[in-house]
Amino acid sequence: MSTTSWGIIGPGKIAKKFAAALTLVEGARLGAIASRDAERGKAFAAGFGDPRVYHRYEDLAADASIDAVYIATPHGFHAEHALLCLRQGKAVLCEKPMALSARQVREMVAASREHSAFLMEAMWTRFLPWMINVKRLIAAGSIGTVKYIRADFGFLAPFTPSGRLYDLRLGGGALLDIGIYPLFLCLELFGRPASIVASGVLSPTGSDETCHAVLGFGEGRTAVISSTLACQTSLTAEIAGTEGMIRIPTPWYKNDRYEWCRSGEDLQPVVLEPMVNGFEYQAREVMRCREQGLKESPSLPHVFSLMMAETMDEIRRQLGVTYPTE
Amino acid sequence: MSTTSWGIIGPGKIAKKFAAALTLVEGARLGAIASRDAERGKAFAAGFGDPRVYHRYEDLAADASIDAVYIATPHGFHAEHALLCLRQGKAVLCEKPMALSARQVREMVAASREHSAFLMEAMWTRFLPWMINVKRLIAAGSIGTVKYIRADFGFLAPFTPSGRLYDLRLGGGALLDIGIYPLFLCLELFGRPASIVASGVLSPTGSDETCHAVLGFGEGRTAVISSTLACQTSLTAEIAGTEGMIRIPTPWYKNDRYEWCRSGEDLQPVVLEPMVNGFEYQAREVMRCREQGLKESPSLPHVFSLMMAETMDEIRRQLGVTYPTE
Question: pTM of the full predicted structure?
Answer without folding.
Answer: 0.96
